Amino acid sequence: xxxxxxxxxxxxxxxxxxxxxxxxxxxxxxxxxxxxxxxxxxxxxxxxxxxxxxxxxxxxxxxxxxxxxxxxxxxxxxxxxxxxxxxxxxxxxxxxxx
Length: 98
Known about the structure:
Shape: globular
Helix content: over 70%
């Protein structure tokens, strides 16, 4: 008999994990010297697209523009835009609506 426990991830948890992963990839571009800014040329539009797909509506559109700018501009990759949006969506906005 198997005693494995299976966990079902909620939509909220999936968004957090994907967001943390996306933020980590954005940070990782600075781990390899000389690659950071060149990587951002490809990463900025990809990150903006993923952001737009994860968070639909006006907030997703605005957030994807901010994500694109944050990834494209030098020295701004430290801002965890995906994690901040998750926090806004599931903590701040939830408090406003309750």
